[in-house]
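Good morning C.,

I know you're traveling, so I'll keep this short. The sequence:
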Amino acid sequence: FENSSRFVLTGDIAPTFGNNGMVVAPSAVVSHFSRALWFITKNVFNNNSTFVVSCGPITAIAGNGVGFVGLGLPTITASGMTETGQKYCGFEIKKIASVMTVIAIQCDGGATATFSGTLQTLAVDDSVELFLKMNASSIDYYTRLNGGAISAVTTLSATLPSGAENYISFVTSNKDSTDDMKIQFQCAAYEH
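The tokens, ready to paste straight into the viewer:
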């Protein structure tokens, strides 16, 4: 993430770039969201795709917010994330009453999303790596907290996304609050 030229920057607060990666943060001003879209020239859901991203260190735990990182383009605005109606798969990072958790989530564009239980609970200064591997009829999700062991697999098979979609999304929203939902993305890799 050396600079912004490889991304489509949207949202009302643009992500920033520095020596430690890309910071996606809507700021501590009510009702903002920040999004970077990485355009991939092929359909991101095809051919058993894999995606990995490194996030952290986590610095903004207080308050409320939501973020997403993964394949596809879910609907996220200053009010939060709409978990249905778009094709995507990845990780939702939720901040509720100053508790930040990571779940796996996927949607086939219909009226239902499929999600896991909590995969990780994050604290200030934590770093987390997030991995997903698409299979013919399911998606495998893994995490690694603070350089420790890779987690056991979490597999989701319902509402599997497919078809045309060319973006990988990095997005956060402060959910109509003044709480900063800041995530620093250090690096990411996609294989198709």
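Safe travels,
E.
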